[in-house]
Amino acid sequence: MLKDITLGQYFPGNTTAHKLDPRTKILLVVLYIAALFTAKSLLAYGLLALTLAACVRVSRVGLKALVRGLKPVLFIIVFTGILNLFFTPGESDLWAWGPFHVTETGLRNAVFMVLRIMLLIMGTFLMTYTTSPISLTDGLERLLNWLKRFRVPVHELVMIMSIALRFIPTLIEETDKIMSAQKARGADFESGNIMQRAKAMIPILVPLFISAFRRADELATAMECRCYHGGEGRTKLHVLRYAGRDYVALLLGCLILAGVITLRCVGL
């Protein structure tokens, strides 16, 4: 299960998706999320699914990597779908048994909610797959640069987010190693009730926290040795510049959002 968590991983490549400016990809994800929460019909969700499929094709990341990233949140997806399916009121029941009722409205909401969560997660993961943590940091900092007028430490906040995202795969790998070592010593993490399983996780959490603090201390020392003192007066090795493909991508993103809004307005 831990190996299925792919958040924060970066798949190097030389595709158009990899070459896009990180600011463009962040804005496209925002437009994509806005379109997802605007969609109210199967036609609109089909349009967004086709858009995601086209992006996956261009990025050459592979659909399997995105689907594998859904496994850790599969329970949340199924649970959300069940809640919407059985507990959404409607005019007529399609199926009823005791307190459980399935209405046409509930079935519709369940399908749309499951599609929304799946497309949202896969679309967000695709951005991290095609954008390195450093590029993502630079893009976020440039987009939030206007907050510096209000004395908001944008560089430091973005750096914290980038480091946290970068170390997710590392901590997952560390957790997997600790669990393998504990299992080799006879530990059992799968049997027993919820309380027993929670107690069995303590031998994993303690060394994991120690390892995380040790890595944090080593990273802080390395940054100090390289004379890092925040973002004031720092220059960039790679200066971000928009290219023609960035404007085309943003135009396509705006057109897709406009199309979803149009479908909602006309009731399709």
Core attributes:
single chain, about 270 residues, two-stranded antiparallel ribbon, 12 helices, mainly alpha
Radius of gyration over all CA atoms, rounded: 22 Å
* SSE string, helices as H and strands as E: HHHHHEEHHHHHHH
Shape: flat
Helix percent reads 55-70%
Q: Which strands sit side by side, in order, in the main sheet?
A: 1-2
Percent of residues in beta strands: under 5%
Walkthrough of the structure:
This protein is mainly α. It is 68% helix and 3% strand. It has twelve helices and two strands. The chain has helices at residues 16-19, 22-38, 42-59, 63-70, 74-86, 104-130, 133-143, 154-166, 168-184, 194-200, 202-225, 244-266; strands spanning 93-97, 100-103. The chain has a two-stranded antiparallel ribbon. A hairpin with a 2-residue loop joins strand 1 (93-97) and strand 2. It is flat. The chain starts with 15 loop residues before the first helix and ends with a helix.
Furnish the topology, listing elements before pairings.
Elements: H1 16-19, H2 22-38, H3 42-59, H4 63-70, H5 74-86, E1 93-97, E2 100-103, H6 104-130, H7 133-143, H8 154-166, H9 168-184, H10 194-200, H11 202-225, H12 244-266
Antiparallel strand pairs: 1-2
Helix pairs in contact: 2-6, 2-7, 2-12, 3-6, 3-12, 4-6, 5-6, 7-8, 9-11
